[in-house]
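Researcher: I'm preparing a figure for a lab meeting and need a structural model of a single chain. I don't have an experimental structure, so a prediction will have to do for now. The sequence is pasted below. Please return the structure as C-alpha cells so I can convert it later.
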Amino acid sequence: MPKLWSETIEAHRGAVRDTVLDATARLVAEQGLMAVTMSGIAEAAGIGRATLYKYFPDVEAVLTAWHERVVAGHLDQLVKVRDRTEGPGARLDAVLRAYALLSYERHEHHGTELSALLHQGEHMALAHHGLRDLIAELIARGAAEGELRDDIPPVELAGYCLHALAAAGGLPSRAAVRRLVTVTLSGLAPH
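Model: Understood. Here is the structure written out cell by cell.
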C-alpha cells in the first residue's frame, strides 16, 4: 500500500475515532455514564452501528477510550497550571487546587458504579504515576528552596497529597475543597 494511502486511511480512522469520542463526551454530559449505549453513540456520531463496532467491541471499550482521553487532558491541564505559575510553592498550591477541583467535579458529574470501573486499569495507573511524579517534582523544588519540608522524600509527600485530595470527590462544596487543599498544604510546611 502506498505511504500516502496508508496515511490517509490512518487519518480517516483517527477522525472517526475522535468523532466517536466527541459524541460519547456529549452523551455522558447529557445523559450520564450509565445511559450511554452503542446505538446512541453511533447516532450521535453520525455513523452506522456496524462502523462503530469496527472501532470498538462494546460500550465499555468506547467509554474507556473516552476516559483515557479525558484523563490525558486533565494531566495536560495540570501541566499548564504549573507552567503559568511562578515559584515552587505557588506552583504546588495551584496544581493541587486544580487537581482537587477536577476530582470534585468528576464525582459531581458521574455515577459511582461505572465511574469506579473507568478509574481502573493501566491507563489510570500510568496517569497516577505521571501525576505523582509531577507533584513530587514540585515538592522537591520547593524543599530545595526552603519553601517546603525536606525531611520526607518528595515521592512520599506526593502520595500523601494525592490520597488526602482524593477526599475532594465527597465534599459538599468548592469551598470545602479549597479548605482541604489548605489543610493538605499545611502538612508540607517546613519544620
